[in-house]
User: Which sequence fits this backbone?
């Protein structure tokens, strides 16, 4: 059943390209809508441990056996949500019908790749789907053939090739040690303790290579060089997809899944905590100094991904649950912010924050949803971002590194600082000169913005209830 | 013993290819040559996979993997070449210094 997540979008892309162009142009958007909505609804209604209502994953995580399908459900929903928003924004931004069609096709292909990454149970299959995601992202970044877009795409091509070499070398070394590539066998081989000293050092080297490759794909500082360039130079509709889900599906989620299911990280890992802290700090400070709206959001992504990494590095229940929850939350609010950036760019013609200002009165919905998104990112209480950050910080504290937890909280204030500066320069204050005629974006940008804003608000509000249902198993164990 | 000595021959070639590829990526200023450097690195990885299959004696598993990998690699390099062509058309040069505008 779950293979349909890969097969159906692929078949749809094939059929769309066989149809006459006019018909296909009209159909591609609605096919995308139908696919994303159906896959989202399917995951939420049929999986036994649906993320929102059952909260079974926690129980599984307690026993250190995340059954992949639980983690996958969260990712399938996030992928469907982000691709849904990207379809709307693409429809809104591209005036050329042909470009819209190409964009929709690439979105579907990227969705195939990401669903495959989530679904794969074998290291080599994982590599194949990672490459599908990467190839469609290259084209998406360079889609408009602007100078900046091509530069961003080439930087991504180069670093992604290096990541591929690292990942494949690691796959070869793991095959040498374990003689197989599926997750179960590799896990059994790595954690059983049957390897002699030399072989286990060899395996450790292989795991390090793999993690370094995933760090490049996920844009963790010191490997983040490509990320701000690619996000800020891509057409904004593609930035929605890239910033919302691609780095998380290809880099961070894969890291979480492999760390839990394959490499068996069950002790707090100072390496992950260190890289996470570095990402949080560098991302936050770099975001503070940006003038370009999209570039600032890109650095903010780096900073938020740092939180996911420290949650994973704490290797206890709170941390890992928080990390997974933060992946979902981050894809919701970062997509929302990029949708707002798209609306601002289309209506005003610029993303330079120095030339914007006072848009809140003219674009009330965009302004209001962006306030919700940035409060959620900064971790202000009633919104969903607060709960995931709280869980991550609790986890890090319990894993015996309170300093890291305190620094993470302080740097969370930095998030508030750079987003407040963004709000002041774009939405509040006096209306900038030359923007008197500006109007609210049309419904194609507002639909995803409102949907995502409602999700972040509702999950934040019902979380105390979710907490009640899932703290019970926790208390019985502690 | 026979297997191990063969393995070390393969492994030394892999290391040689990696050194050539990395050196090439570091010194060249030409976008197309960067693609060639990427390909040399990938060939190193392919050879490493061959070595892995040879060492474990599971060539039947590693053969389809290598063929799939070659196909995927061709797709990636075709897309990358497309990006280089677009860069040439917009800048009129394949010098990597023409791609240094994004900063900050």
Assistant:
């Amino acid at each position: 059943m779950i293979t349909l997540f890969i097969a159906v979008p692929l078949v749809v892309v094939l059929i769309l390209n066989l149809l006459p162009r006019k018909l296909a142009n009209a159909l591609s958007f609605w096919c995308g809508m139908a696919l994303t909505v159906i896959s989202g609804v399917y995951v939420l209604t049929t999986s036994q441990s649906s993320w929102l209502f059952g909260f079974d994953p926690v129980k599984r995580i307690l026993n250190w056996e995340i059954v992949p399908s639980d983690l996958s459900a969260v990712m399938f929903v996030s992928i469907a949500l982000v691709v849904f928003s990207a379809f709307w924004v693409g429809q809104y931004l591209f005036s050329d019908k042909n470009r819209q069609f190409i964009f929709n096709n690439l979105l579907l292909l990227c969705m195939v790749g990401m669903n495959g990454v989530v679904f794969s149970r074998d290291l080599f299959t994982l590599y194949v789907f990672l490459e599908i995601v990467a190839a469609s992202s290259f084209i998406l970044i360079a889609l408009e053939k602007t100078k900046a877009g091509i530069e961003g795409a080439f930087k991504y091509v180069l670093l992604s090739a290096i990541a591929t070499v690292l990942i494949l070398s690691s796959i070869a070394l793991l095959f040498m040690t374990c003689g197989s590539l599926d997750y179960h066998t590799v896990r059994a081989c790595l954690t059983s303790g049957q390897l002699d000293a030399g072989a286990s050092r060899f395996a450790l080297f292989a795991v390090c290579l793999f993690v370094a490759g995933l760090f490049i794909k996920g844009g963790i500082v010191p490997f983040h060089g490509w990320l701000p360039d690619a996000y800020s130079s891509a057409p904004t509709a593609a930035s929605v997809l890239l910033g919302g889900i691609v780095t998380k599906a290809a880099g961070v989620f894969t890291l979480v899944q492999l760390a839990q299911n394959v490499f068996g990280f069950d002790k707090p890992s100072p390496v992950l905590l260190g890289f996470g802290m570095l990402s949080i700090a560098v991302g936050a400070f770099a975001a503070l100094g940006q003038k370009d709206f999209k570039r600032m959001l890109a650095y903010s992504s780096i900073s938020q991904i740092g939180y996911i990494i420290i949650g994973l590095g704490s290797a206890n229940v709170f941390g890992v649950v928080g990390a997974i929850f933060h992946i979902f939350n981050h894809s919701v609010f970062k997509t929302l912010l990029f949708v707002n950036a798209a609306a601002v760019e289309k209506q005003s013609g610029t993303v330079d924050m120095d030339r914007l200002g006072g848009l809140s009165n003219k674009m009330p919905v965009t302004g209001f949803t962006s306030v919700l998104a940035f409060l959620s990112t900064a971790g202000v209480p009633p919104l969903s971002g607060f709960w995931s950050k709280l869980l991550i910080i609790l986890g890090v504290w319990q894993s015996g590194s309170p300093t890291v937890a305190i620094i993470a909280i302080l740097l969370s204030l930095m998030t508030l600082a750079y987003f407040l500066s963004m709000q002041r320069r774009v939405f509040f204050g006096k209306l900038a000169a030359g923007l008197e005629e500006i109007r609210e974006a049309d419904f194609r940008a507002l639909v995803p913005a409102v949907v995502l804003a409602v999700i972040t608000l509702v999950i934040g509000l019902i979380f105390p209830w979710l907490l009640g249902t899932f703290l019970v198993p926790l208390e019985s164990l502690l | 013993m026979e297997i191990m000595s063969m393995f070390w021959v393969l492994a030394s070639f892999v290391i040689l290819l990696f050194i050539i590829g990395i050196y090439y990526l570091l010194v060249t200023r030409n976008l197309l040559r960067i693609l060639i450097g990427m390909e040399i690195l990938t060939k190193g990885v392919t050879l490493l996979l061959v070595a892995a299959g040879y060492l474990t004696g599971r060539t039947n598993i590693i053969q389809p993997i290598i063929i799939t990998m070659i196909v995927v690699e061709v797709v990636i390099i075709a897309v990358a070449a497309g990006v280089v062509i677009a860069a040439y058309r917009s800048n009129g040069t394949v010098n990597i210094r023409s791609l240094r505008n994004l900063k900050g």
About this structure: Residues 127 and 168 of chain A are 8 Å apart (CA to CA). Chain A touches chain B through 44 residues (CB under 8 Å). Confidence is low (pLDDT under 50) at residues 48-69, 470-478 of chain A. Chain A is about 80% helix and 0% strand.
